[in-house]
């Protein structure tokens, strides 16, 4: 038990610790978000005793401040947008959204920021949950400091898995800290809709939150340092999303860097490098993520605090035999679903090594494979229009040295698009490897395209030959018929 007492001979406090029991497990997991939960689930299923440590809410960033609340906020926005495109329904949905009801529904999706249900799930798999701050304290050792100051020591016979995720990264700007900026957490948990909102950034968080708050009634200004939105996707994606946001009333300024931020009498003022000043009630910085590894004891095992953790394809940290890193912290793909995939792979690898079973590295397609494949990383951006992509963009494929060809199709030419109503705008691209005759990447943008993505993921991950795709017949009339149009365009 760590106890603080006043030293009678000094003006400061000193710490002393009485001996506590050291508790041994097969596996200790740092972080009880979706990634850590999946590691624990796999190792418990293999019969390994597992402890999971969490300093905040069980369920992690995704459940309370990212995936779930953001999509709960976006769903009414996108449903209204779809309805407004349909004759016979459009006139019925011309009024404003009920912002209070949208926020209340978001609260339900986050369980009002209570994690009782998630805790019950951890208990149901037989893992032991420790609440508190977990830190490495040497090889295969973790200390957990609880809110009451009590310290427990956990040891791991086989593995420690770091699944602590990321936090929003704020730039070092004059006046920013004092101005009280929003990050993704404040945006997704907002209790009120600001009358004016500045969004700094042009990526996924920036575009999704601009979509939400404009629809809920904010006057939104987006300040983008680069040339456009969603720069990591095909260029036409950002162009279509920017066009739709602009039509909705969002003011998008590209090539604009924020140099300082101040708050005067409740008003936020952002000054840019071009001398412009933008005023708002709140300012959201969506300018990247940093790993939550700065205070988890990495220095005790020879690693740099605050660093991304480099891993091999079994998700084991390079240079170690017992430390694993899954999800955002290894910087391979900052996506919840990809982190959960990595967690399943890591759980398989830990369990196999614990049992002395050879890893199935020669069989990457096996259900119990213990090596991760990152060639087909999927992502959906829930803007209006939606954007979805898997694998490599054309530029990425060319940089990787592949001889490729991009095949583009206007999604509005597909019969199923007409079911979405008037004025459907969208585009699809597949990047074909001309030597292997397989797909290196696929991108869609348009209403409803998120549901198209898994078919593309299967094609890319499975390296399905283009000729075989001809025999995967899309149903009529659905927008999945875009596959037929793409193949026809490729054949010429």
UniProtKB/TrEMBL annotation:
Q: By its UniProt entry, which InterPro entries does this protein fall under?
A: Class-I_Pyr_Nuc-Dis_Oxidored, FAD/NAD-bd_sf, FAD/NAD-binding_dom, FAD/NAD-linked_Rdtase_dimer_sf, Pyr_nuc-diS_OxRdtase, Pyr_nucl-diS_OxRdtase_dimer
Entry cofactors? FAD
The taxonomic lineage of its organism, from the top, reads: Bacteria, Bacillati, Actinomycetota, Actinomycetes, Kitasatosporales
What name appears for this protein in its UniProt entry? NAD(P)/FAD-dependent oxidoreductase
Q: Which organism is it from?
A: Streptomyces thermogriseus
Family statement drawn from the similarity comment of this UniProt entry: Belongs to the class-I pyridine nucleotide-disulfide oxidoreductase family.
Asked if Isomerase is a keyword of the record, the answer is no
* Pfam family, any one: Pyr_redox_2
**The keyword Nucleus appears for this protein:** no
Keywords from the UniProt entry: FAD, Flavoprotein, NAD
């Amino acid at each position: 038990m760590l106890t603080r007492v006043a030293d009678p001979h000094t003006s400061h406090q000193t710490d002393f610790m009485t001996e506590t029991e050291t508790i041994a497990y097969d596996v200790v997991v740092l972080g009880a978000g979706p990634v850590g939960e999946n590691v624990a689930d796999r190792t418990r299923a293999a019969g390994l005793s597992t402890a999971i440590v969490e300093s905040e809410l069980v369920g992690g960033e995704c459940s309370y401040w990212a995936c779930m609340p953001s999509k709960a906020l976006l769903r009414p926005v996108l449903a209204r947008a779809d309805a407004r495109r349909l004759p016979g329904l459009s006139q019925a949905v011309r009024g404003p959204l009920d912002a209070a009801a949208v926020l209340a529904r978001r609260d339900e999706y986050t369980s009002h920021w209570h994690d009782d249900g998630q805790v019950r799930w951890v208990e149901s798999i037989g893992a032991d949950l420790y609440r508190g701050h977990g830190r490495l304290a040497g090889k295969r050792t973790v200390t957990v400091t609880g809110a009451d100051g009590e310290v427990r020591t956990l040891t791991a016979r086989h593995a420690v898995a770091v699944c602590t995720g990321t936090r929003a990264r704020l730039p070092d700007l004059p006046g920013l800290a004092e101005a009280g900026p929003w990050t993704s957490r404040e945006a997704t948990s907002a209790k009120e809709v600001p009358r004016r909102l500045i969004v700094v950034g042009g990526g996924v968080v920036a575009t999704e939150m601009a979509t939400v708050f404009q629809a809920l009634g904010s006057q939104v200004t987006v300040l983008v340092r680069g040339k456009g939105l969603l720069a990591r996707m095909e260029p036409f994606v950002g162009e279509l999303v920017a066009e739709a946001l602009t039509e909705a009333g969002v003011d998008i300024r590209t090539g604009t860097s924020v140099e300082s931020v101040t708050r005067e009498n409740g008003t936020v003022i952002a000054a840019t490098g071009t001398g412009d000043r933008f005023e708002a009630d709140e300012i959201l910085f969506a300018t990247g993520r940093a790993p939550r590894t700065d205070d988890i004891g990495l220095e005790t095992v020879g690693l740099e605090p605050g660093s991304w953790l480099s891993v091999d394809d079994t998700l084991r940290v390079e240079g170690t035999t017992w430390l694993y890193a899954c999800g955002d912290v290894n910087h391979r793909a900052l996506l919840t679903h990809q982190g959960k995939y990595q967690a399943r792979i890591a759980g398989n690898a830990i369990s196999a090594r614990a049992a002395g079973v050879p890893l199935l590295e020669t069989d990457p397609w096996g259900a119990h494979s213990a090596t991760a494949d990152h060639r087909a990383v999927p992502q959906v951006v829930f803007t209006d229009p939606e954007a979805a992509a898997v694998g490599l963009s054309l530029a990425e494929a060319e940089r990787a040295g592949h001889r490729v060809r991009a095949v583009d199709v206007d999604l509005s030419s597909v019969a199923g698009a007409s079911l979405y109503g008037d004025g459907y705008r969208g585009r699809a691209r597949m990047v074909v490897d001309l030597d292997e005759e397989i797909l290196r990447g696929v991108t869609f943008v348009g209403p409803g395209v998120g549901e198209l993505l898994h078919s593309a993921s299967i094609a890319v991950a499975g390296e399905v030959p283009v000729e075989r795709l001809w025999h995967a017949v899309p149903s009529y009339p659905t927008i999945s018929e875009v596959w037929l149009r793409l193949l026809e365009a490729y054949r010429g």
